[in-house]
Amino acid sequence: MSKSLVACYGLPRPQGGASVDGAHPDNPVARLPEGLYDVVTVMSASGALTDVAKLGEAAKRAKAGGSVEVREVVWAWPSAEGRPPAAVAPALQSLRAARVGDIRTAESLRRAVVYAGLSPSGTSVRPLAAPEMRAAAEAAYPALASQAAAGAAEAHDALTALAAALAPHLALGVVVAQRP
């Protein structure tokens, strides 16, 4: 029987199975033994939450030759800058939150996986589910997310509107890799 681990960075935790909140300040991923798991899945709401160092840290938990799957919210546009062109989505050009700029393209995610020391075997882009879209908006606007969690109705409504504005332009990038 294979052992698997899911490290969540801002995306909702899956039902069942072993999972840890990688974004927790105590960094529980780093405290897990290295080379223990056959399959490690990293789920991230933004590139800001899983830089190359965090991807590498999670990947170390996989056995040599083990599988590592990275699922991250990415721009659905293949352009070099990631954001959709102004002619297609003019409203998005005004979303200047620093964390919106941290959203990567699927190709940038693949490169981050390579820089983390893994050997990718495939990259795909899938539609986002509603909870993942909400998590992406919360990751892009952490101050609003904090206010909404504290019960502020205006912040909750603002996040809902931002998620709706971002929804057609974001996707779930999936990179399957192997730990050497």
Q: Any key phrases for this structure?
A:
5 helices; seven-stranded mixed β-sheet; 180 residues
What would you note in describing this structure?
The chain is an alpha/beta fold and 180 residues long. It is built from 5 helices and 7 strands. Strands 1, 2, 3, 4, 5, 6 and 7 form a 7-stranded mixed beta sheet that branches. Strand 3, helix 1 and strand 4 (62-75) form a beta-alpha-beta unit. Helix 3 packs across helix 5 and helix 4 (142-149) crosses helix 5 (153-166). It is globular. The mean pLDDT is 86.
Arithmetic mean pLDDT: 86
For the largest beta-sheet, the strand count, sense and barrel status come to:
7 strands, mixed
Please bin the fraction of helical residues.
Answer: 25-40%
Indicate the low-confidence ranges by residue numbers.
none
Terminal CA distance reads 21 Å
Secondary structure: number of strands: 7
**What structural class do helix, strand and pairing data support?**
alpha/beta
The tally of helices reads 5
Gyration radius from CA atoms, angstroms = 16 Å
How big a fraction of the residues is strand? 25-35%
What is the structure about, briefly put?
The chain has 180 residues and is of the alpha/beta class.
Q: What topology does this entry show?
A:
Layout: E1 4-9, E2 19-21, E3 37-44, H1 52-59, E4 62-75, E5 104-105, H2 106-115, E6 119-126, H3 130-140, H4 142-149, H5 153-166, E7 170-178
Parallel strand pairs: 1-2, 1-3, 3-4, 4-5
Antiparallel strand pairs: 4-7, 6-7
Helix pairs in contact: 3-4, 3-5, 4-5
